[in-house]
Amino acid sequence: MKRVADSTVRRLSLYLRYLEDFAASGSSTISSEELASRAGTTSAQVRKDLSVFGSFGKRGLGYDVAELTQKLREILGLEHEWRVVIVGAGKIGGALALYRGFRQRGFPVVAVYDSDPRKVGSMFESFVVRDIASLAADNRREPADIAILTVPAESAQEVLDQVVAAGVRAVLNFAPVQLHAPDHVTMKTVNMAMELEGLSFALKSLGNRESGSAHRRAKTG
Amino acid sequence: MKRVADSTVRRLSLYLRYLEDFAASGSSTISSEELASRAGTTSAQVRKDLSVFGSFGKRGLGYDVAELTQKLREILGLEHEWRVVIVGAGKIGGALALYRGFRQRGFPVVAVYDSDPRKVGSMFESFVVRDIASLAADNRREPADIAILTVPAESAQEVLDQVVAAGVRAVLNFAPVQLHAPDHVTMKTVNMAMELEGLSFALKSLGNRESGSAHRRAKTG
DNA sequence: ACATGTGAACTGCTTCACAGCG
DNA sequence: CGCTGTGAAGCAGTTCACATGT
After folding, report:
1. β-pair partners for A149
2. Given pLDDT bands bounded at 50, 70 and 90, which one contains residue B218?
């Protein structure tokens, strides 16, 4: 199949969320225009995105909510659960391990790993922290589909290598560095430092004219 | 000034991180080629990105690490700190409030807010959780530059509206919904559900051929 | 009549390739 | 001679506009 743009997949994920809301509200059909306004895009974009995978609408009518929901779930591969492991038992790893939304959306967290011997074996809510070195063996019994990396930037590449060697083929990285993985491994990076610096750039570019800026320029406030 | 592409700003942020590492390792000059390999891009891209803001290199030599670091900090608006408030005293908000990396990179968390009266007034590590309704007044005394939204999807738009009304002009949203803000407010969204679904799509597209897939198809494993 | 599905036009980011300069 | 800086070319994603089908 032809390569699908990343931006398209991201929007499909958004559409799915709104369809689920919409189904709850009772309506059985929805137009590309309505989906677009919810997802913050245009009706043409919605139709183009869907057209990559087929023709799901009825001309003059729109899309059947239940049917399109089901199609999107199929397209995104959400018909069964994907087993997630968290690697890095720190603050953020902890928050994610406890976050119920993942399981609700079909991504149950099945284990937590760390490379720090002092953490290994300790309890982490309902999880016993396992040694990252045992991931490969654990994976042979009960394969993990996705690894979430919440380790410090310094060790992120090393840990990624271990995760890849263990056979995991999808990684969500929270370390603020660009990691290098083999082609058969899919990686997404959430870089909060980068997002904040993007906001900094925007604030600075706008001239930061609001009254509050004074307290920074003149510390003698 | 001409509009700068979002992708450019994101890469500048990455370059800066590597320059900081590089400075620590002693070298005083760096080529676009070397920066590119670290940041996972091409030398031409590095030069194009920088050329948007000026000519910082020396032909035949490369870039002075200290000088380029300084320039990037200026460009990104990192010469002074930006005050951050976290709105939503739940699991993720908590992890972010405790995360030291923000302060280290110039984004000190100065307060935590929530709209749940049961949480307001309670301690959250070193923070007393404040009522979101008091944000506007607090802001008049000590303006927050950036709000990080870690509230449930259902209330995210409502909370965003309050944050905007309080005068905050930059928002980092962790709720998995598309939010609508006025033009003068800059928003970035980190949507973990979307990232995971992107990984799901990739795994599914690759056919998920590895041994582990069997245990899902045949529950009789 | 109405909303989809889609080729064509457009926009904007990336890559190329080389002139320019240290 | 080496590496930057940059127009020009190439490519990918978005928007337009209308033919198509119900």
Report:
1. A87, A173
2. very low
